[in-house]
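STRUCTURE:
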């Protein structure tokens, strides 16, 4: 008989953004990053040592009383033992530690058994699913007479000296009345000296840039929106003052785990466990390397700018890492660099995952690589973090739907290509993503339904499966080409003309928008250039009609669809990058 203990943290993003203060987000992410890991300084290792529980967390240990780990990354760990006593002791001490260090953190855990490791894990997953539906009371509980934190509404507690030091810069009385989680974050912010250094950011930083770059902790004073705004026009200055929140999550993890489980079905318990542990580590390596190469790309973009390339001072990157665990990342980034960073991550993640999967000690599992899809929310730096987080997660789900549509929603044998969804938010809103899109990007017409102004999600890389699924019009490459053509000085239909067309559609005049488009092509002095431009527009139109009959919009079951909004967003945030390349 084998026993397993499964533990998973839930709603991490919601926990991180709870107080809405950047220093608390940074501190919470650092604390959670140190929670579960196969390192000496992880909280998990400290608990094991304090309880005198032998394990293979740091080094191999095959004794019968030792706890063996199948997974210990990304806010979750799976542990097994031939005896239930060590796991029961671990569970008691571990949940006590979590409730003391992270009182309002949502987690589920399960202790189960089985005749073999495979069956024990299956039983554990069923118990985890049941635990998710069992609500838990957070302590300290806040009755009516208890003073509450102004930011979170939770029970306020007295502050420690470290928390007071970290809070004095806020210059408001509410900072002295914090809930217990925020108080713990402020302690860590002060005691870990997160203003100067942080462990999480090292995982985003390439080895060659260690000590040369830094990450801002204050968006108002330290975040470099641009090196020299004097050389930019009004529209460019407006573009680089925006912030982007990026959230990217892996695709195909469930498929690969099922394949891996099937491939190891007849293997020994030790080989089963070691292979799962190797996969957990491999997934983390692929994510870290992809994040580091994306950070290198962003650094290289900044080096193109004169003010960044001069001198030997430490470069403050216009990005702030928030989460890196398992197969997902979350970070803030300067708006005009966000899409490039996200696309770079997705491309490298696929390559690195393929490299790491080949290293697994198993012959063939039927899946050679993983991909990643995500969301990018463009907004003002002052936009509430919690609302931003909810919207960017919805964008990530939108991108994942596009990924699944390429291979089929119920396909359990193929991993879909990477995709990214994006949206520009002009004003603070408490609405859901669907409600915001319906309000800002859909305009009803008197006849034939309405106009939807953008698709909002595109595929990162080309793939044979995309052609088979008739989704080639959803590729970033085609949208890139149209943005480039529309941004040229002699563009037949410039970005300003596209903007005029959007205004006419919003005013219920699609015929006038069509006239503006055709007028731009007619005024083009170069017919070859005009034909190339029309070809770029046609590539983004999925209609099956002949190319000569295609337009900048197409008919759907709900009215008409166009890509004007996507084009304008990309054009708006690529202006600075284009200027850098021209120089």
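SEQUENCE:
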């Amino acid at each position: 008989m084998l026993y397993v203990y499964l533990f998973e943290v839930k709603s991490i993003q919601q926990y991180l953004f709870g107080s809405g203060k950047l220093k608390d987000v940074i501190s919470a992410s650092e604390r959670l990053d140190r929670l579960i890991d196969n390192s000496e300084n992880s909280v998990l290792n400290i608990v094991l040592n304090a309880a005198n529980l032998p394990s293979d967390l740091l080094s191999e240990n095959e004794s019968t009383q030792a706890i063996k780990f199948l997974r210990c990354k990304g806010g979750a760990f799976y542990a097994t033992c031939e005896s239930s006593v060590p796991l029961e002791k671990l569970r008691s001490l571990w949940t006590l530690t979590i409730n003391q260090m992270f009182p309002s953190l949502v987690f589920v855990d399960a202790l189960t058994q089985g005749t073999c490791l495979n069956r024990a894990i299956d039983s554990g997953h069923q118990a985890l699913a049941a635990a998710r539906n069992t609500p838990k009371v957070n302590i300290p509980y806040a009755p009516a007479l208890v003073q509450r934190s102004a930011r979170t509404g939770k029970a306020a507690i007295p502050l420690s000296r470290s928390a007071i030091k970290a809070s004095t810069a806020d210059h408001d009385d509410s900072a002295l009345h914090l809930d217990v989680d925020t108080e713990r974050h402020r302690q860590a912010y002060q005691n870990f000296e997160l203003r100067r250094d942080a462990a999480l950011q090292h995982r985003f930083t390439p080895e060659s840039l260690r000590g040369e770059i830094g990450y801002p902790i204050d968006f108002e004073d330290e975040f470099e929106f641009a090196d020299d705004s004097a050389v930019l026009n009004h529209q460019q200055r407006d573009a680089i003052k925006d912030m982007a929140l990026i959230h990217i999550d892996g695709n195909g993890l469930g498929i690969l785990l099922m394949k891996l489980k099937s491939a190891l079905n007849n293997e020994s318990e030790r080989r089963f466990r070691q292979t799962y542990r190797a996969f957990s580590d491999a997934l983390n390596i692929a994510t870290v390397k992809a994040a580091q190469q994306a950070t290198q790309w962003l650094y290289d973009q900044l080096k193109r700018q004169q003010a960044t390339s001069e001198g030997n001072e430490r470069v403050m990157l216009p990005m702030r890492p928030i989460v890196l665990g398992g197969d997902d990342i979350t970070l803030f980034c300067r708006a005009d660099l966000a899409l490039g960073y996200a696309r770079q991550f997705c491309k490298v993640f696929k390559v690195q995952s393929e490299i790491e999967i080949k290293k697994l000690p198993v012959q063939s599992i039927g899946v050679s690589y993983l991909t990643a899809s995500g969301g990018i929310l463009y907004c003002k730096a002052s936009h509430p973090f919690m609302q931003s987080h909810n919207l960017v997660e919805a964008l990530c789900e939108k991108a994942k739907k596009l990924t699944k549509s390429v291979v089929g929603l119920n396909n359990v044998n193929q991993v879909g290509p990477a995709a990214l969804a994006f949206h520009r938010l002009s004003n603070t809103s408490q609405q859901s993503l669907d409600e915001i899109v319906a309000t800002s990007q859909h305009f009803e017409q008197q006849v034939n339904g309405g106009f939807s102004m953008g698709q909002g999600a595109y595929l990162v890389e080309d793939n044979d499966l995309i052609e088979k699924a008739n989704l080639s019009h959803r590729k970033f490459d085609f949208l890139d080409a149209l943005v480039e053509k529309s941004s040229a000085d002699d563009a037949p239909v410039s970005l300003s003309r596209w903007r005029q067309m959007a205004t006419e559609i919003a005013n219920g005049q699609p015929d006038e928008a069509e006239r503006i488009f055709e007028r731009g092509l007619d005024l083009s002095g170069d017919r070859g250039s005009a034909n190339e431009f029309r070809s770029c527009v046609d590539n983004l139109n999925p209609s099956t009609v002949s190319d000569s009959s295609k337009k900048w919009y197409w008919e759907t079951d709900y009215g008409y669809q166009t890509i004007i909004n996507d084009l304008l967003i990309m054009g708006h945030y690529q202006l600075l990058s284009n200027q850098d390349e021209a120089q």
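REMARK: Residues 579-583 have pLDDT under 50 and may be disordered.
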